[in-house]
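Hello forum,

I keep getting stuck at the same step: I have a sequence, I want structure tokens, and every attempt I make locally crashes halfway through. Rather than fight my setup again tonight, could one of you with a working pipeline run this one for me? It's a single chain of 281 residues.
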Amino acid sequence: MSSIGRLVRKNHSAVFWCTMQYPKAKREAVYTLYALFKHFDDLSSSSLSEKEKGEIFNAWQQEIINIYDKKVPATDIGRRIYKHCMRFKLERKYFENILSGFALDCPKPMYCPNLRDFTKYCRGVSEIPCYLILKIIAEFDEETSEKLSKNIGFAVEMTQILKNVKEDMIGGHVYIPWEYLENAEIEKGLAPYDILTHKNLYKVRTKMADAAREAYEEAYKILKENHNKNSKPIVYMLNLYHTYFEMMDKRGWEIISPKPELGLKDRLRLVFKVMFLRKSL
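Reply #2:
Ran it on my machine without issues. Output:
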């Protein structure tokens, strides 16, 4: 097993097991992308200084240039992207969009973006990663891949924001779009902790939940019509975050703590549900 395979197995074992039936080339490509996305996610939440984070992001901009200009990549992940991912003809623009999305939250933490920047952020950190994985493994047509990744990416990212709202705001990250806060009469310029404890925050969370619910419904509709055996990792990820979403929805959006967690048995149940899935959801 490769070092990146071990990383995936350690940090997201369900993705590892759901991809076991794939040819080695597809597994290695998916594992490499997972390592890249995790690297950026860890970087944005790390304790490094803004200067250090900025330098790393600048280096990655050059790394993407190296990969597509057929120069020697400087990083281990970059070399693996060149080796494992380029055979699937993943366009340069997608990696540049991923960098642009993560750059909205790094080196400086995101604080109340406008809807335009929030859409760009969701696309870069969630929708495009989903699209690239679908491109490698699922063999859907282009239109289906685009629609599915847009809805899954948006639903998952909204669920992440709703799920981690407390720890994110304590860490200075406010991912909620300003327009949502304004509609809930939460005044502009408040410190993250003051937004977290505001009496109207539940209104914002309810509005975000409504948008996420629509995306989940559309994603499941598309999958029901197009699901095949190769889309199992994506189905698992959708089911996992939808379970988190339903847990929060059931208890009410005024409750932010503790964040929902799934035990080993629950995760295994989701894995088995996907592993033995055949023609329909």
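The chain has a mean pLDDT of 88. If your local run keeps crashing, start a new thread with the error log.
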